[in-house]
Specification:
- The structure is a single chain.
- The protein has 425 residues and is an all-alpha fold.
- Helices cover 76% and strands 0% of the residues.
- The protein contains 20 helices and no strands.
- α4 packs antiparallel against α13.
- It is globular, with a radius of gyration of 22 Å.
Length: 425
């Protein structure tokens, strides 16, 4: 019965339009009232404890680094570099979009920010070259969701804090799956674009290619510094976030000189707004998380799926299907915060590697960014690229299918994630 109260109160609040953070708090209050332990101090203490975590400091700094990267010209130089390398290939601008998405993912970790930057620059170029615009928008949206999978990733930070799993291990484990997602998108793009009447860009002369590489070198050095520092043990993920923000500020203001002092208040304000939304969600979710544990809800769910505990692959299939459905209705961060405390006890009981589960779980929640009715990334690319949302949904379909196939491939073959993660760590 406790499980029913939890589900009805949470979904009921969201159904009538209550923001997710307040829905989580409302759900916690209802659970406390049902269990006869209502106490406002529990809400306050858990919200404060939720924010009082050193690891979460990485979130505002990575968000700031992403904003500084876009304002300082790093994103544009990465795209120019990709165009110089592969723009002349048939379908090359699509490959440019994925190549740039993967590189930018290793810098900012924000699906919405990366998608907006790519859509603003590439959609007009692809339309001019004769590409199918809705399909191009769908490709850019699908490439944008790689950002939370390849480190540094705010989604991994939130999951790591909620699940008490090493964020460094999550970062290292996300590299190979993120690259596989990119490869799958390139293969799908080349398959669907082969019959289109498109005009490839002229081949970039070697001198200009070297010049584009040189101009992008400072931007390309950012992921090396972040991941290299974490891998070498020089910095923690939180400290790496500070290094990333300072590096992006330095490159944007001193090297590229596109970021002016007058731009900083706006950039910092935007980063602060985004941080506030995420942190409030985290705080509110910690209230529900504590009460989920107190109400023993994971044990109730385990009772329903106990026949699958001894069959981890089938259990993962079922869980991934459930998360896929939930992701159509919830944004990435709320999905992580609501489901993590419910699923982690089950994962541990089944003997599934928590890091491996975390990577697939985040991949799945990212796929939810491409599925209506919420589909945050779909809305971003629709707004920035000025493409009707319905057409973007049609255009993204083959790439969405490709990402789902990659997800379930990794369910069947967990060593693709586990082995490289252990080696990299």
């Amino acid at each position: 019965m406790t499980l029913v109260v939890f589900i009805v109160s949470l979904l009921g609040a969201m159904a009538i339009g209550v923001p997710v953070a307040f829905s989580l708090m409302f759900c916690g209050v209802i659970l406390m009232w049902y269990m006869g332990m209502f106490n406002t101090q529990i809400i306050a203490q858990n919200m404060i404890a939720g924010a009082d975590t050193f690891t979460l400091l990485a979130i505002p700094f990575f968000i700031l680094a992403g904003e500084l990267m876009n304002a300082g010209g790093l994103s544009r130089r990465i795209i120019d570099f990709a165009i110089a390398c592969v723009g002349h290939i048939r379908g090359g601008l699509g490959i440019v979009a994925i190549m740039a998405a993967v590189i930018m993912a290793s810098i900012s970790g924000s699906a919405a920010a990366d998608t907006a930057a790519l859509a603003a620059i590439l959609i007009p170029m692809m339309a001019k070259a004769g590409y199918n615009v809705p399909r191009s928008a769908g490709l850019i949206a699908a490439g944008g969701i790689i950002a939370p999978v390849i480190p540094p990733s705010m989604a991994f930070i939130v999951f790591g804090v909620a699940a008490n799993v090493s964020i460094t291990q999550l970062f290292m484990a996300g590299i190979v799956p993120g690259l596989i997602m990119g490869i799958a998108l390139v293969a799908t793009w080349l398959l669907v674009v082969r019959k289109d009447d498109i005009q490839p860009l002229p081949r970039t002369p070697m001198k200009e290619r070297v010049g584009a590489t040189g101009r992008a070198l400072w931007a390309l050095g950012m992921p090396v510094i972040i991941l290299g520092g974490i891998k070498a043990g020089v910095v923690t993920p939180t400290e790496a976030a500070v290094v990333a923000a300072v590096y992006a500020l330095f490159v944007g203001m001193v090297i590229y000189r596109e970021l002016k002092p007058r731009d900083l208040p706006g950039v910092i304000l935007q980063a602060a707004k985004t941080t506030a939304v995420i942190m409030f969600l985290v705080c509110a979710a910690l209230v529900s998380s504590w009460l989920i544990t107190a109400a023993n809800i994971p044990a109730e769910i385990t009772g329903f799926i106990s026949p699958l505990i001894d069959r981890p692959t089938l259990l993962m299939f079922v869980i991934m299907l459930v998360v896929l459905v939930v992701g159509t209705a919830l944004d990435l961060t709320p999905t992580i915060l609501i489901l993590t405390p419910v699923l982690m006890p089950i994962i541990k009981q089944a003997g599934i590697d928590p890091v491996y589960f975390g990577v697939l779980f985040i991949m799945n929640t990212c796929i939810g960014l491409l599925t209506p009715p919420v589909g945050v990334v779909l809305n971003v690319v629709s707004g920035v690229g000025r493409v009707p949302l319905g057409k973007v949904i049609v255009g993204v379909t083959p790439f969405l299918v490709a990402q789902i196939l990659v997800l379930f491939l990794l369910v069947l073959f967990p060593d693709i994630v586990i082995v490289p993660a252990r080696w990299l760590h």
